[in-house]
Design goal:
Number of domains: 1
Low-confidence stretches: 21-37
Oligomer: single chain
Largest sheet: 2 strands, antiparallel
Mean pLDDT: 81
Distance between the termini: 41 Å
Helix content: 40-55%
Number of helices: 8
Shape: globular
Number of strands: 2
Strand order of the largest sheet: 1-2
Order of helices and strands: HHHHEHHEHH
Structural class: mainly alpha
């Protein structure tokens, strides 16, 4: 299975791909599958999920967990996101959180999705601080990129893509804010 951001290369047994398969099964046959898959979850990966099941010492942002939170699906225990956020705070670089341990680049929209998993404003701000630094200190004055290097804020490729609208996902997690803007 090719991982979500294939620029880093193909990876067999990728955790995100495996979780997507679980979600597909859950939505097709009820929520009992979560109980059946608990041995794949946090107990096995005490601090966090691996990037791939067969690769100890690896990690990646679990940005797609934001949809579990926003849609109230509760497919994974809330402790999963809490452990991931705590771990990510130890992996922050000057201008952001790398997508995973293989390369030092990130995607702006997915960083915000990941930060939105934080339960506290303190943790959200800790993850967003470097992104704020990137937006304010990046040298090129061109439309915002969603793919850049975390160490020096250099644009890696993309520019002015619609996916950058994903930075507004935090608004979906605030019921008051969502109601205010959705009624317009």
């Amino acid at each position: 299975m090719i991982i979500d951001f294939e620029k880093a290369g193909e990876m067999k047994d990728h955790v995100r791909a495996e979780k997507k398969a679980v979600v597909g099964e859950i939505t097709g046959s009820g929520f009992t599958l979560v109980e059946e898959t608990k041995d794949l979850l946090p107990n096995q990966y005490v601090l966090r999920f691996r990037l791939a099941f067969d690769r100890p010492g690896t990690w990646s942002q679990k940005y797609n967990l934001v949809w579990d939170k926003l849609l109230g699906l509760n497919l994974l225990p809330s402790e999963v996101a809490e452990k991931e956020i705590a771990f990510y705070k130890t992996r922050l670089d000057r201008f952001g959180l790398p997508l995973d341990n293989r390369k030092n680049y990130t995607k702006t929209d997915w960083e915000v999705w990941t930060a939105t998993l934080a339960k506290s404003r303190f943790d959200f701000d800790a993850l967003m601080g470097p992104v704020y630094g990137f937006v304010n200190q990046t040298q090129p004055r061109v439309p915002m990129t969603d793919w850049y290097l975390c160490r020096d804020a250099r644009q890696r490729g993309f520019q002015a893509r619609p996916v950058i609208g994903g930075v507004f996902v935090k608004m979906l997690s605030d019921p008051v804010m969502w109601k205010k803007w959705s009624l317009r």
